[in-house]
Amino acid sequence: MKVINKYIAVEMLKSTGIAVLFLLSLVLVITFADELDDMGTGQYGLIEILKYLALIAPRNFYELLPSAALLGALITLGSMANNYELTAMRAAGVSRWQIIFSVLRVGVMLMVISLFVSETIAPASEQAAQMLKFTAKNEQVALRTKYGFWTRDGDTYLNIREILDSSELKDVSIYEMTDHNQLKYATHAKTASFINNKWALKGVQQTAILEDRVEVTHSDSAQLDSLLDPGLLDVIVVKPERLSIMGLASYITFLENNGQDARQFIVAITSKLIRPFVILVMLLIAIPMVLSVKRAGSTGTRILIGALIGIGFNLIDRLFGNVGVLYGLNPIIAASMPFLLALSLSVFTIRRMG
Predict the structure, then answer these.
(1) What does the angle CA 317 – CA 129 – CA 138 come to, to the nearest 5 degrees?
(2) Could you tell me if 345 and 289 lie in one domain?
């Protein structure tokens, strides 16, 4: 049985690898075609587009892995069925359940890979990709550090310690420099809100550095026509799909402690926790499509059906999550419902195989 387990694992990993490379290449080519429309905007050229594609690849890999696992299982088991290898295994005394568990062992390995990519590589690379694209298109210098977000516009430097959303900032510092790179003004605001295409500052303190003295003025509010493009904040503001599970958990705690709505992030963390197990469900769906067939079938037909199932599941999964947030459904139930339905259907189908 060890030989059979190893054989199935090697063949499935090869087929899944080919499937994920094909799907990833397809997605990146489509994205490349879309990005060509923006080429030439600012400093966003071909090199920047290629860097952007490389940075978003880990997130796409993680999202495509369940569908690739489904296709890999269909290709591997379908080929074995067409070559009567599964029939030979059954004649040698290998039960259907032993074959199923051999397939699921590969699923566990793919789960570990999925978790590693989604938790260690994808969040940072996705954030870097969005930052690269925006700063190149708008020719702005921007940096996110443990001391907050920094950006530069000409001789003005901006530091934001806390970003609530793309139009609400807290603990904002503005540093204006002279032509000789000497500090001219240092302005601090407790909050900044983007209202009617202007930034409204509250709790403002401005320090003017003069030749012979320093002047400090205070005001309850002030307005600036130009502080920061809100589009840049749309890039750097916390988005659920760009966070790891630990990052989501910390942010949900922060939102709840401050009395803010965290449903969108609860849906995201539930989906992230479930996502690796979707790989096992996809394999369970693939198994009866091959083992329950009495005679050899078309591999192409199986691949087409598998692709449709993978696409359909992703669409339904996103639909349930968005509908749950929109209509105030329990976020955990909304995020897990597609997974539970697919799991129930696959288990029911396998049990009917006998």
Answers:
(1) 120
(2) yes
